[in-house]
């Protein structure tokens, strides 16, 4: 293992050369290398990032879904749903962020990275549960955090904050029941209090 990572610009050049036309962009922001690939090239790009001599990203340390529908106050021009992965090379002491956008907003699908890094298994289940992103080739794509009867995907920007239904244990029926949300929506406006002597009266 190397003691010091190479500079982000050198890594950017290495990753760009490795991926070639499979990368839509390879940029550096805040000293981090960011790679964007198309859905059709996602799996092959992941394999190259894992195996290429100058990359060797042996570990997938995080993967999450994204909903860009309100990104930059609606100025975003790309696809609505994306998947962002953070990769680590232990042997070369370097990191990269890999982003892919699903080609369809109505039914977002991208390839699973489970066959590349087995740590993707639960990360992808979480992204499926919370965003409704389907990972093609995943061998056990089930909800992970929400209840089995849950309807919808709660991290989508159009999902209501209070949800659609709530569950409770019914003592008479001796089982869990679902019912419409009973929380009344309300808007909380902070009250500003001003005092003549605020701050001890020092002027």
What would you call the structural class? alpha/beta
Kindly state the number of beta strands.
Answer: 9
Low-confidence blocks of residues? none
Strand order of the largest sheet: 1-2-5-4-3
Please report the number of helical segments.
3
Instruction: Give me the CATH fold name of the domain at 8-145.
Output: Beta Polymerase, domain 2
* Average of the residue pLDDT scores: 89
Strand content: 25-35%
- Within CATH, the superfamily of the domain at 8-145 carries the name NADH:ubiquinone oxidoreductase Nqo5 subunit
What general form does the structure show? globular
**How are helices and strands ordered from N to C?**
HEEHEEEEHEEE
Short structural summary:
17% of the residues lie in helices and 28% in strands. The protein is of the alpha/beta class and 203 residues long.
Structure description:
- By secondary structure, the chain is an alpha/beta fold.
- The protein has a domain at 8-145: 2-Layer Sandwich (Beta Polymerase, domain 2).
- Helices cover 17% and strands 28% of the residues.
- It contains 3 helices and 9 strands.
- It has helices at 8-19, 42-51, 120-131; strands at residues 23-29, 32-37, 59-67, 81-89, 94-101, 109-111, 134-136, 165-170, 175-180.
- The strands form 3 sheets. It has a 5-stranded mixed beta sheet.
- β1 (23-29) and β2 (32-37) form a beta hairpin.
- The longest helix is centred in the first third of the chain and has 12 residues, at 8-19.
- The N and C termini lie far apart (61 Å).
- It is found in: Cell membrane.
- NDH-1 is composed of 14 different subunits. Subunits NuoB, C, D, E, F, and G constitute the peripheral sector of the complex.
- This is NADH-quinone oxidoreductase subunit C.
């Amino acid at each position: 293992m190397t003691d010091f990572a190479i500079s982000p610009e050198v890594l950017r050049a290495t990753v760009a050369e490795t991926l070639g036309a499979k990368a839509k962009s390879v940029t550096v922001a805040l000293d981090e290398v960011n790679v964007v690939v198309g859905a059709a090239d996602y799996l092959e790009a992941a394999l190259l990032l894992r195996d290429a001599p100058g990359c060797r990203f042996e570990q997938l340390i995080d993967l999450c879904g994204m909903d860009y529908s309100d990104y930059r106050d609606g100025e975003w021009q790309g696809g609505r749903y994306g998947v962002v992965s953070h990769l680590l090379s232990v042997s070369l002491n370097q990191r990269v962020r890999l982003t892919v956008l699903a080609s369809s907003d109505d039914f977002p699908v991208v390839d699973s990275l489970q066959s590349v890094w087995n740590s993707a298994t639960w990360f992808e289940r979480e992204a499926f549960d919370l965003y409704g992103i389907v990972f093609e080739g995943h061998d056990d794509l089930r909800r992970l955090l929400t209840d089995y009867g849950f309807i919808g995907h709660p991290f989508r920007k159009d999902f209501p904050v209070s949800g659609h239904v709530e569950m409770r244990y019914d003592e008479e029926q001796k089982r869990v029941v679902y019912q419409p949300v009973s929380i009344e929506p309300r808007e909380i406006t902070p009250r500003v209090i001003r005092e003549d002597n605020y701050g001890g009266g020092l002027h």
